[in-house]
Write a structure and sequence with these properties.
The chain is globular. It is built from eleven helices and 30 strands. Strands 20-21-22-29-24-27 form a six-stranded antiparallel β-sheet, with no helix packed on it. It has a five-stranded mixed β-barrel with strand order 6-9-7-8-12. Helix 3 packs across helix 6, helix 3 packs across helix 7 and helix 6 packs across helix 7. The protein starts with a strand and ends in a 6-residue tail after the last strand. The chain is α/β, with parallel strands linked by helices and about 475 residues long. A hairpin with a 2-residue loop joins strand 20 and strand 21. The protein folds into three domains: about 270 residues, Alpha-Beta Complex (Spore Coat Polysaccharide Biosynthesis Protein SpsA, Chain A); about 60 residues, no CATH class; about 100 residues, Jelly Rolls.
Length: about 475
């Protein structure tokens, strides 16, 4: 077993097929869709017990950096580094940046590349496959993880296994990749045998991956090097150079390297895997009642069969329905045939074309200091409920086009308003005029809750000028 094993967890992706739960500002990897933990947390937790693994490197979109850090901290995960992508450029540039970062200290380290948003039901089988993959990777191979198909799925890529690699216990040379075949081809693959689903997980040494990337996609390698050279520390994060990374051509690890290299291998990993790519995938993997229904939240079913029903806040009753997906949130409801669950992204695209907000964020919007949620809104006014975590504070800021009224519901607030500083207790309030510098801070040991009433000619979140900010957002 190699001495240094570095998990590289890829936290990009929008998860648009899991709308309305997954949204641009809170995508599926940061949601508790399967267990009480988020998919990212489950990814980190399943590494426990894997011999020799070190602290992980996370590659995260800069908009989601505080989610990643807080969720890791909540399960006592300590990252080796958190690399921030200024824009999404698919998996090859992300892995290249992580490999370069690790290789600067240990080029022979074996990277275990994992998506942050997959489900693995058999952790012991995952550990066995990971150990095999790491041993083969240490011999200079680039190893993909393959899953024995259970149905002729057309939404996955396939890997045709070639000759066994000694000792031949489920590890093979890669003969070829097949991208999302037709149903007829997928049925033929199952009948023939020797084909595996491509799970999008990999193992290779940092040096070997960079060598192969330089051979087949030197443009990506050069851009990743430039982005890492221009990287800057931002609190606990390493922010990749924006211009260099944005100029990097987008491509996947599969297309850029795995489908071209002559050192490709695949390890068979029958670990009850799912890419959690749609609501129907969650229905397939979840425990079901006698009528094959899956429910989460406050749900009542009668004469319903083979449905997936999730209530996020309100009660949902379903009567006489079959083969439906029903997902309720506080600002949107999805009702779809399970057979059409893959097409939910069309709803998201339509919302985007109409410049709506329901695909961008929930009514509760998380910030590094806590969250706010919209309670009511109308012409020239907006009402929000804020929660500020103990020890945290909003930035010192001002607004040019709106005034704010704050009413403390519970907790103790320290308020800066112009040159004045005051402490507000429960049921006390203050007024922030237009153009006044102000700051809100939790001065107690419990969460601070307050109601904020905004009024003015423009109420957008971009009407903000920051002067001081402990989260690096100035």
């Amino acid at each position: 077993m190699p001495k240094t094993l570095v998990p590289v967890i890829l936290c990009g992706g929008s998860g648009s097929r899991l709308w309305p739960m997954s949204r641009k500002l809170l995508p599926k990897q940061f949601l508790p869709l399967v267990t009480e933990h988020t998919l990212l947390q489950d990814t980190v937790l399943r590494l426990h017990g894997l011999e020799g693994f070190g602290a992980p490197v996370l590659v995260v979109n800069h908009e989601h950096r505080f989610f990643a850090a807080e969720q890791l901290q909540a399960v006592r995960g300590v990252p080796r580094s958190i690399l921030l992508e200024p824009v999404g450029r698919n998996t090859a540039p992300a892995v290249a940046a992580a490999a370069l970062h690790v290789a600067s200290e240990d080029p022979d380290a074996v990277l275990l590349v994992l998506p942050s948003d997959h489900l693995i039901g058999d952790v012991a089988a995952f550990h066995r496959a990971a150990r095999q993959a790491m041993e083969v990777a240490a011999q200079g191979f680039l190893v993909a993880f393959g899953v024995t198909p259970t149905q002729p799925a057309t939404g996955f890529g396939y890997i045709e296994a070639g000759k066994p690699i000694p000792p031949g216990d489920g590890v093979f040379r890669i003969r070829r990749f097949v991208e999302k075949p037709s149903r007829e081809s997928a049925q033929a693959f199952l009948a023939q045998g020797g084909y595996l689903w491509n799970a999008g997980m990999f193992a290779f040494t940092a040096a070997r991956f960079l060598e192969e990337l330089g051979r087949y996609r030197p443009d990506i390698l050069a851009a990743a090097k430039a982005a890492l050279h221009d990287a800057a520390r931002d609190l606990d994060f390493l922010r990749l150079g924006e211009a260099a990374f944005a100029a990097c051509p987008p491509d996947s690890v599969d297309y850029a390297v795995m489908e071209r290299t002559d050192r490709g291998a695949v390890v068979r990993a029958d670990m009850r895997w799912s890419d959690v790519g749609s609501w129907s995938a969650l229905w397939e993997t979840a425990p079901k009642d006698a009528a094959q229904n899956v429910t989460r939240g406050d749900v009542w079913l009668h004469d319903a069969a083979r449905c997936y029903v999730r209530a996020d806040g309100r009660h949902v009753s379903v009567l006489g329905a079959q083969d439906l997906v029903i997902v309720e949130t506080d600002d949107a409801v999805l009702v779809a045939s399970r057979e059409r669950a893959q097409d939910v992204r069309e709803v998201v695209e339509r919302l985007d074309r109409q410049h709506r907000k329901e695909h961008v964020s929930h009514t509760r919007v998380y910030r590094p200091w806590g969250y706010y949620e919209t309670v009511d809104a109308g012409e020239r006014f907006q009402v929000k409920r804020l929660m500020v975590k103990p020890g945290h504070a909003l930035s010192l800021q001002l607004h040019r086009r709106r005034a704010e009224h704050w009413v403390v519901v519970s907790g103790r607030a320290s308020v800066t308003r112009g040159a004045e500083t005051m402490t507000l207790e429960e049921n006390q309030s203050t007024y922030i005029p237009v153009g006044t510098r102000h700051r809100l801070q939790n001065a107690g040991d419990e969460p601070l809750y307050l109601i904020e009433v905004q009024s003015g000619s423009y109420l957008g979140e971009d009407d903000i000028e920051r002067f001081e900010d402990r989260y690096g957002r100035k």
